[in-house]
Amino acid sequence: LGDVVVYASDFKRTRETAEELLGHIGLPRGDVHLVRNLRERRFGTLELGDHGRYSHVWQYDAQDKDHTEYGSESVWSVRCRTVQLVHRLEREWEGKVILLVSHGDALQILQTAFK
C-alpha cells in the first residue's frame, strides 16, 4: 500500500472521507493531501439552498460549457482545474496509485476529460 497517495478537497467532509478511506486501507489517516482544485463546483446564488435548485444550472450546462448563470462556476472552469491537477499529480507521483476524494459535480466533470 506504499504505492498509494490520497488527495482530497480541502473541505471538511471530503477530508473526513479521505481519512476514513486511509484507515480502511491501512494507511495513517493524516496522510491526506488537501488541495483546492478538488473543491465542489461553485453554484453562485444557489449555494446553501435546496440542492434540487442545482438542476437549473445543469440545464444551462447542457447548452453551454462556459456559462456562469446564477454566478455559478462554468463546467469548463471545473474541468480545467481538475484536469490540471491530475496531470500534475501524474508527473509528481509516477508509478503510484492516486486516489482522489472530491464532490459529485467536480468528479463527474473531471470524468468527461477521460472518455
Describe the structure using short key phrases.
single chain; alpha/beta; three-stranded parallel β-sheet; 41% helix
Compact summary:
This protein has helices at 12-24, 54-61, 75-92, 104-111; strands spanning 4-9, 32-35, 97-101. The longest helix is centred in the last third of the chain and has 18 residues, at 75-92.
Mean pLDDT: 92
Low-confidence stretches: none
Sketch the major β-sheet: 3 strands, parallel
The secondary-structure class comes to alpha/beta
Q: What is the number of helices?
A: 4
Topology of this structure?
Layout: E1 4-9, H1 12-24, E2 32-35, H2 54-61, H3 75-92, E3 97-101, H4 104-111
Parallel strand pairs: 1-2, 1-3
Helix pairs in contact: 3-4
Explain what you see.
41% of the residues lie in helices and 13% in strands. The chain has helices spanning 12-24, 54-61, 75-92, 104-111; strands at residues 4-9, 32-35, 97-101. 23% of the residues are buried. The mean pLDDT is 92.
